[in-house]
Amino acid sequence: MREVSIGEAARASGVKVPTIRYYEQIGLLPAPVRRDNNRRLYTAAYLKRLAFIRHARELGFEIDAIRTLLELQDHPQQSCAAADATARVHLAEVERRIGSLQALRDELQRMIDGCSHGKVAECRVIETLADTSHRHGRLV
After folding, report:
1. Does residue 1 fall inside a structural domain?
2. Is 51 exposed, middle or buried (0-12, 13-18, 19+ CB in 10 A)?
3. Does the structure show a pLDDT above 60 at 56?
4. 79 and 100 in contact (C-beta within 8 Å)?
C-alpha cells in the first residue's frame, strides 16, 4: 500500500482528522513520516494500528486500557494474561453500567406505569421527578 495523507487515513479508518492528531499527541500513535513538504504520510501499518484503536474505542475501552493493549500488541511474544485482565476489568465495568441502566429502566417504567393519564397535578412522572427526598439508588 502506498503512503496516504491524513485526510485519506481518516476516510479509510473512519476516524476524524482531529482525533488522529489527538491520538498522535497522547502517544497512542507514533508521529507519522513527514516528507519534504512537511505533509504527514501514513503507512499501512499505521492505518492498521489506527483501526485497532478505533475498534477498541467502539468497544468502550478507555485510553489507558488501549495504551496497555497496544503495548502488548507491540510485543506479541508476551503472555496474553495482561490483555485478558484488561478485558476482564472492562467487562466488569460494562456489567456495572448495564445494572445501572436496568435500574434506570425500571424506575422510568414505574413512573410511566403509575401515570393516570389525567392532569399534570396528578401526573406520577412529574410527582416522581419533583420528589427530591426519595431516591431509588444511584442511576447512570
Report:
1. no
2. middle
3. yes
4. no
Cα–Cα distance for residue pair 33/3, rounded to 1 Å: 9
pLDDT at 140: 45
User: Rounded to whole angstroms, how far apart are CA atoms 44 and 66?
Assistant: 20
Looking at residue 41, what DSSP letter applies? E
What average pLDDT does the segment 47-70 reach?
95
Q: Are the C-beta atoms of residues 49 and 82 closer than 8 Å to each other?
A: no
pLDDT at 122 over 90: no
Residue 72 burial class via C-beta count within 10 angstroms: exposed 0-12, middle 13-18, buried 19 and up: middle
Quick one: average pLDDT of 35-40? 82
User: How many domains is the chain partitioned into structurally?
Assistant: 2
Given this model, what pLDDT does residue 137 score? 53
- Assess whether 63 and 96 both reside in one domain: no
Reduce the DSSP state of residue 132 to 3 states and report it: coil
Q: Using CA atoms, how far apart are residues 61 and 67, in angstroms rounded to an integer? A: 10
User: Is this structure's pTM higher than 0.70?
Assistant: yes
